[in-house]
């Protein structure tokens, strides 16, 4: 099996149903990834080890999804100079706004590229990771172009279907 280009982490098993969306997109683009549960609060040393060793393993992008007081993406940004994409998750009565603000409000110099709350965000995290990889991988770039061509065709076909009503 190829060594991972992307690592997807989530704070809890309860995040799995959302974060698996990111894995699905990476699979569609044939990008090797690794996925695991790493908590900024419950397993801080384990999280720091994964983040700090990732670049040396050939990983290019980190995706971190967490809910509530979501520090996971920020913790990965603290321990790695790889691009970190944060996915805020709706895990409390605040509906993900808590995680969104915790993920996006990083101090200057330690960015977390923050996507939307939930499944759409998880998918976009993987698309953004693919686009980052595509800057130095023409095969991935071609798959992205093909994906976009399919999406454009779907819109044109949907538009065409309105003509037959
Ligand atoms: C966060 O707290 C996790 O990312 C999860 O979204 C949320 C709730 O975790 P559990 O209590 O379900 O394990 O750290």
Protein described:
By secondary structure, the chain is of the alpha/beta class. The protein has one domain (6-137): Rossmann fold, CATH 3.40.50. Helix content is 48%, strand content 15%. The protein has a five-stranded parallel beta sheet, with helices on both faces. Helix 2 packs across helix 3 (72-79) and helix 5 (119-134) packs across helix 6 (138-161). The radius of gyration is 17 Å and the shape is globular. Residues 11-12, 14-15, 39, 66-68, 89, 91 line the site of 5-O-phosphono-beta-D-ribofuranose.
Question: Top keywords for this entry?
Answer:
single chain; alpha/beta; Rossmann fold; 15% strand; globular; binds 5-O-phosphono-beta-D-ribofuranose
N/C terminus separation? 49 Å
Quick one: biggest sheet?
5 strands, parallel
Strand order of the largest sheet: 2-1-3-4-5
Please indicate the count of domains: 1
Q: Which of globular, elongated, flat, extended, rod-shaped describes the shape? A: globular
CATH class wording: Alpha Beta
Query: Could you spell the SSE succession in H and E letters?
Result: EHEHEHEHEHH
Which hetero ligands occur in this complex?
5-O-phosphono-beta-D-ribofuranose
Count of individual helical segments = 6
What's the pLDDT, averaged over the residues? 97
Helicity range of the residues?
Answer: 40-55%
Structural class comes to alpha/beta
Query: Which spans of ≥5 residues are poorly predicted at pLDDT below 50?
Result: none
Classify the fold: give the CATH topology: Rossmann fold
* Count of extended strands: 5
Beta fraction:
15-25%
Radius of gyration computed on alpha carbons = 17 Å
């Amino acid at each position: 099996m190829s060594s991972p280009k992307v690592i997807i982490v989530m704070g809890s098993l309860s995040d799995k149903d959302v974060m698996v969306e990111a894995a699905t997109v990476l699979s569609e683009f044939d990008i090797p990834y690794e996925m695991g549960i790493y908590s900024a609060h419950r397993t801080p040393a384990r999280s720091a080890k994964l983040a700090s060793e990732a670049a040396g393993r050939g990983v290019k992008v980190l995706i971190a999804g967490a809910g509530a007081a979501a520090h996971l993406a920020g913790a990965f940004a603290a321990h790695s100079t790889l691009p970190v994409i944060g996915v805020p998750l709706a895990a409390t009565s605040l509906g993900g706004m808590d995680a969104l603000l915790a993920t996006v409000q990083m101090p200057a110099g330690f960015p977390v590229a923050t996507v939307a709350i939930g499944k759409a965000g998880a998918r976009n995290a993987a698309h953004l990771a693919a686009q980052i990889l595509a800057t130095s991988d023409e095969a991935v770039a071609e798959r992205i172009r093909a994906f976009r061509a399919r999406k454009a065709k779907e819109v044109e076909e949907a538009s065409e279907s309105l003509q037959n009503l």
